[in-house]
TrEMBL record:
Note: The active site is a redox-active disulfide bond.
Organism in which the protein naturally occurs: Roseivirga echinicomitans
Residues that bind FAD: K50, G114, T143, G144, S145, D312, M318, L319, A320, H321
GO BP, one annotated term: 2-oxoglutarate metabolic process
EC number(s) stated in the UniProt entry for this protein: 1.8.1.4
Domain Pyridine nucleotide-disulphide oxidoreductase dimerisation as annotated: residue spans: 346-454
GO molecular function: dihydrolipoyl dehydrogenase (NADH) activity; flavin adenine dinucleotide binding
Annotated Gene3D superfamilies: 3.30.390.30, FAD/NAD(P)-binding domain
Binding site for NAD(+): G180, G181, G182, V183, I184, G185, M186, E187, E203, G271
CC cofactor note: Binds 1 FAD per subunit.
Catalytic residues, chain numbering: H444
Catalytic activity: N(6)-[(R)-dihydrolipoyl]-L-lysyl-[protein] + NAD(+) = N(6)-[(R)-lipoyl]-L-lysyl-[protein] + NADH + H(+)
UniProt name for this protein: Dihydrolipoyl dehydrogenase
Disulphide linkage map: C41-C46
Length: 466
């Protein structure tokens, strides 16, 4: 079979690239080694984790806040099997949706492992070992990533687990140790803490979600402490031992003191590594860099002229929407268009409660760059909407250029900030000043007023409600 473009990997990078290529008139094949499309994000990432976060949040609210709202319940119970089954249903609906989109756009789906024979010929090997050869003009590598670990940790997938197994547990852990204080660990730790597990986080750095503005990590820690999390920040894990029934984790602090934690499960969530196994990169002369990433130029082209790479398998934030933007970018580039991605304006979100969401520069980055900036903050405890819903933890922090008032960074922790951050992205794409936002009407009462108030605060300290 002969194609204009063959996409290897059907995650948010790959399937979006395939759709955009088809929209632009190319004959497209997509290869996926698993039986379902959608990649990490839809099968074992964004979607199932959000499904469990939503379910566990309902339970937690029913157990802890309904009474204050005047709603009384007897015999509240968690049915974990039903919760996991509902999550599986959400995943199925989503992956079927992608299969429908492939059909609608006349994209040929080939199930099996894709590997390069040479730069214009790809071999697809299915589960039974049957091989199909595809001839192609161009190739987009979108093979994503897998959970990474430390050399001395044996992931047995039963007691010592990754995010993939954490989405499928058959029981609520009594004590869950989470190694790594990043996004995935805090989200999945929240799921089980809300369902009643004791959760202990061991993190090497001194703060949670360390790549985000430090105010966010500090505030998130306060909220998760209220949920019952224990924190061992600034602790280096030195040993993880799993048996059939439990796990022991040893970690050392900066003074050299060792703590020993015992639990029934240990989630290793220290990051993800690009995935290129079995892809046959050697057959086209590509060697991944020291972190396993495929190197690309500013057009997301590899050193092989007709081969592009996008998403988690290349440099940059490992986020679904970053992969999607790159999919569109590559398709349009192939057609001679001049698309653009502003990587500084790709938002980052943590779906804990309160949610954390951010775009643009952190305060630490502005200091390092020597930019003169001003800040404006507004706490949700001063928001009427947040008081009505009893979601008063958190704040919105706006960083603006001291001289021009242009918004340079927005950092939010609070209710529904995952959705609210879109306004900040739009503002920054249009290079709005803090005063521009401060002078726009925001519906009352909404959480979004907190962004307006933070912009007012950044504009000569003019917040109205604090
Ligand atoms: C628990 C968890 C929660 C997450 N939550 C979020 C979130 O809320 N928001 C967000 O933006 N991001 C989230 N992410 C990250 C997000 O899932 C990834 O950034 C995103 O999936 C990357 O997309 P991708 O297309 O690059 O690769 P992937 O989604 O990893 O897809 C790659 C696909 O390629 C296939 N493949 C690999 N090699 C081959 C081959 N040789 N032949 C055929 N097929 C192959 C794989 O099977 C896979 O299906 C989460 C991740 C995890 C693990």
């Amino acid at each position: 079979m002969k194609y204009d473009v063959t996409v290897i990997g059907s995650g948010p990078g790959g399937y979006v690239a395939a759709i955009r290529c088809a929209q632009l008139g190319m004959k497209v094949a997509i290869i996926e080694k698993y039986d379902t499309l959608g990649g990490t994000c839809l099968n074992v990432g964004c979607i199932p984790s959000k499904a469990l976060l939503d379910s566990s949040e309902h339970y937690h609210n029913a157990a802890h806040t309904f009474k204050t709202h005047g709603i009384e319940l007897d015999n509240l119970q968690v049915n974990l099997k039903q919760m996991i089954d509902r999550k599986a249903g959400v995943v199925t609906d989503n992956v079927n949706g992608i299969a429908f989109l492939m059909k609608k756009n006349k994209i040929d789906v080939h199930t099996g492992l894709g590997s390069f024979i040479d730069k214009n010929n790809i071999k697809v090997t299915d589960k039974d070992g049957k091989e199909t050869k595809l001839e192609t003009d161009k190739v987009i590598i979108a093979t994503g990533s897998k959970p990474s670990s430390l050399p001395f940790i044996k992931i047995d997938k039963k007691r010592v687990i990754t995010s993939t197994e954490a989405l499928e547990l058959k029981e609520i852990p009594k004590h869950l140790i989470v190694i790594g204080g990043g996004v995935i660990g805090m989200e999945l730790g929240s799921v089980y803490a809300r369902l009643g597990a004791e959760v202990s986080v061991v993190e090497y750095m001194d703060s949670l979600i360390p790549t985000m503005d430090s105010t966010m990590g500090r505030e998130l820690k306060k909220s998760l402490k209220k949920l019952g999390f224990n924190f061992y920040l600034g602790h280096k894990v030195t040993e993880v031992k799993g048996t059939t029934k439990n796990v022991t984790v040893k970690a050392e602090n900066k003074k050299g003191e060792t703590v020993e934690l015992n639990a029934d499960y240990c989630l290793v969530s220290i990051g993800r590594k690009p995935y290129t196994e079995g892809l046959g990169l050697e057959n086209i002369g590509i060697t991944p860099d020291d972190r396993g990433r495929i190197e690309v130029d500013e057009h997301l082209k590899t050193k092989v002229d007709n081969v592009y790479a996008i998403g988690d398998v290349i440099k940059g934030a490992m986020l679904a929407h970053k992969a999607e933007e790159e999919g569109v970018f590559v398709a349009e580039t192939m057609m001679g268009q001049k698309p653009h991605i502003n990587y500084n304006l790709i938002p980052g979100v943590v779906y804990t409660w309160p949610e954390v969401a951010a775009v643009g520069y952190t305060e630490e980055q502005l200091k390092e760059k020597g930019v003169e900036y001003k800040t404006g903050s507004f706490p949700f405890k001063a928001s009427g909407r947040a008081r009505a819903s009893m979601d008063t933890d958190g704040l919105v922090k706006v960083l603006a250029d001291k001289n021009t008032d242009e918004i340079l960074g927005v950092h939010m922790i609070g209710p529904r900030t995952a959705d609210m951050i879109a306004e900040a992205v739009v503002a920054m794409e249009f290079r709005a000043s803090a005063e521009d936002i401060a002078r726009m009407s925001h519906a009352h009462p909404t959480y979004t007023e907190a962004f307006k108030e933070a912009c007012l605060a950044a504009t000569d300290n003019r917040a109205l409600h604090i």
